[in-house]
DNA sequence: CTCCTTAGAGAGCAGTGCTCACAAACAGGA
DNA sequence: TCCTGTTTGTGAGCACTGCTCTCTAAGGAG
């Protein structure tokens, strides 16, 4: 194994990403349904069977795209959230939410790839876990900061059943040390609300009620901030 | 046109539902991806081209399944909710939520059909709207009852921007007359939370945090009940 | 009984994912 | 430098898909 990659390895890397790029192009243009290995091969001027030297199956190609999508979303959210001064906890939450929504609207097919219905029989492989949790990590940090600064208001809510308390504890130790499980349980509620709302907007379930969804989105983000006890501003 | 259906019409109706039944069987067994007109035809002992006398395309068959799924969900939720005494507003909300979740877990492929990513290029046709709103109607009624009985507590929340107020007003006149738009806006938040949570559970996004999700579900339902100002019990 | 509509059959088209045997190109050791 | 084993790319081929077309054979209404 050499630090200088061989010509073969370089070519392989290049073709691998060329295939992914063309695959992504097709998914964006026509949705994952119509992603076709043969047409990728055609576009790249190679035999369709050659693709299989790079991805063992169509599903594996899709999985690669999913990982990239998770990473892209994570990076986008990290970016917008990082531009908010650390002490403005609520603004950081708002930035996180806006980041998710903006990314989702700009790259709806990739969003659908991650948060839409999983392909039947498809089990998310190990390697999706880390990129998938990037956004959650941002939320965890923001809560930890708020808690450490003593800025999280007490919120009246149902007490936690022991199993849930334990689960929340587990999440805490993973991404938000010291934050009480009551807060994390409610954060999980806010979390599912956020993605539920974005999914509904993108998948057309808000047509006829809150579409366009800009103001509704802002309102919901505020409600959830209150639910988590984030400071007023 | 006769009240007595002709033999031909009877045969058509029967075959239409036989096709749908076999299609549903396949979707449940292997997911919508693998639904194949040819294998339906094979299973029914007919030529594949004959299917097209009943459904102009594969997508149309899927649309028919989607409508059935909406109706099935609506009926299930209406049923469990109707067994709760009318005056227990909070219990009715809990029943609604439990009904959605139970149905979703029992018929996850059909749930994915409705709330998963829509097929690209697919626009929900007119005829899906009515069955799609059955569950929403249940929620609307429950809120209207609570409001009429003066049981909805005031909840402190961000004020509504004019556009959202108008949208909420529209929803109100459709399914929950007289209920103030503030309440309905928050109900929409609860609504998206509910389906976001169920989707996350079904699609595996809670693995590693709140899985199994029973207690988390109960907690979230309670939080959302509070958000809407539903009475304590 | 006639005539028109409709249901079904079967061949065929263009496309798919994926496999396999084969031939080049490459990489590293002798 | 040659030689050998591994990688890459090829093209034919299999079994399948959605969908269209033409043709035949059954209803059903007058």
Automatic annotation (TrEMBL), chains A, B:
Top-level taxon: Bacteria
DNA-binding region(s) in UniProt: 36-55
Gene3D superfamilies: Tetracycline Repressor, domain 2
A Pfam family reported for this protein in Swiss-Prot or TrEMBL: TetR_C_33
Alphabetical keyword list: DNA-binding, Transcription, Transcription regulation
Keyword Transcription regulation: yes
InterPro entries in the cross-refs: Homeodomain-like_sf, HTH-type_TetR-like_transc_reg, HTH_TetR, MT1864/Rv1816-like_C, Tet_transcr_reg_TetR-rel_C_sf
Name of the protein described by the UniProt record: TetR/AcrR family transcriptional regulator
Source organism: Haloechinothrix salitolerans
